[in-house]
Design goal:
With 287 residues, this protein is of the alpha+beta class. Helices cover 24% and strands 27% of the residues. The chain has a single domain, classed as Rossmann fold (3-Layer(aba) Sandwich). It has helices at 8-20, 22-32, 77-90, 106-114, 171-181, 240-247, 273-276; strands spanning 3-5, 36-41, 46-51, 57-58, 61-62, 69-70, 98-100, 119-120, 133-136, 139-142, 156-162, 182-191, 202-203, 205-207, 213-215, 221-222, 231-232, 235-236, 252-257, 281-286. It has a 7-stranded mixed sheet with strand order 1-19-20-12-11-7-8, sandwiched between helices. Helix 3 (77-90) packs parallel to helix 4. It is globular, with a radius of gyration of 18 Å.
Length: 287
């Protein structure tokens, strides 16, 4: 189960308590050395075999945020976290109008069983029209952009995305757009790389007038299923993000922590704790 926090101070108390527990470090070191792990999948509601490593790593140390893949539902640590946060937030509502900003994914297949009206989409590029469907790699894919969603005002009960926001240059406009399309009481639920020891967001680059990128930090690209070259990272987010969400109009803004090694919910296993560690967290905001 998630513990939900409204303030950074409350979250950090719990996070630092985890750090102080030697068994956390020992347990993650043990997991990182295994090929598989038998644990409880919250999505499958069963004890299953999980694949620990996916190839994502930190100089040879496996990135457990992208690992711990359930052999049944195919969801990673991060995707199962998002699934659980969504189902806790929205509840058992088969009539919910839901949008997931990824398409043809194991996460979408699992969410569609709970929310039959789920609409899946991908960002295909600025030369595409939001709400239109295109053939991409042999499949129909609906295009949506966080900077210009096709849905009408107050039309959705859920907007969900995972590790997308850091790749949107104007992230505050994206948050405002999510607020616009959600109905009162609707939820924005998402993950992104979160740096809990940073008070402020770090802007890594910005677009020049000629369309080129001015790199304010060494350029960083993340793997992307649609683009072989990867996708540019504009931001590293810290606690300032909570204020950004409130400024966008959300009335309830929370960060959720769910640390449970048996369920495969562990940190990313970054070797430098105060530099790059990412605990199993999800953000949610209510319109």
């Amino acid at each position: 189960m998630f513990s939900w926090f409204d303030r950074a101070e409350e979250f950090m108390e719990s996070a630092l308590l985890l750090q102080a527990q030697a068994q956390v470090e020992i347990g993650e070191r043990y997991l990182a050395g295994r090929r598989s792990w038998r644990g409880y999948c919250a999505c499958c509601r069963a004890v299953v075999r999980m694949r620990v490593k996916t190839g994502a790593n930190f100089d040879g140390a496996p990135n457990l945020r992208e690992g711990m893949v359930c052999r049944r539902c195919k969801l990673t640590n991060r995707k199962r976290l998002l699934w659980q946060a969504i189902t806790e937030s929205v509840g058992d509502r088969p009539d919910a109008r839901a949008a997931l900003l990824e398409a043809h994914s194991p996460l979408g297949r699992q969410l569609a069983q709970r929310y039959p009206h789920l609409i899946e989409s991908e960002y295909l590029g600025d030369d595409h029209v939001a709400g239109q469907t295109y053939r991409h790699r042999g499949r129909p894919v609906r295009h949506e952009s966080l900077l210009g969603l096709s849905w009408a005002n107050d039309s959705l009960d859920l907007v969900a995305h995972t590790d997308v926001l850091e790749h949107v240059e104007h992230h505050r406009a994206a948050l405002a757009e999510c607020h616009r399309v959600l109905a009162p009481g609707g939820w924005l639920v998402f993950t992104m790389p979160f740096f809990m020891f940073s008070a402020n967001n770090l802007r890594r680059g910005r677009t020049r007038a000629d369309g080129s990128i001015e790199h304010l930090q060494p350029p960083e690209y993340h793997g992307d299923g649609l683009r072989a070259e990867g996708i540019y990272t504009w931001h590293h987010f810290g606690w300032q993000l909570l204020a950004d969400l409130r400024d966008a109009g959300f009335r309830k803004v929370q960060i959720g922590l769910n640390y449970d090694p048996f369920a495969g919910f562990v940190s990313n296993n970054h070797p430098q704790y105060e530099v790059g560690v990412m605990l199993p967290v999800v953000f949610r905001a209510m319109r």
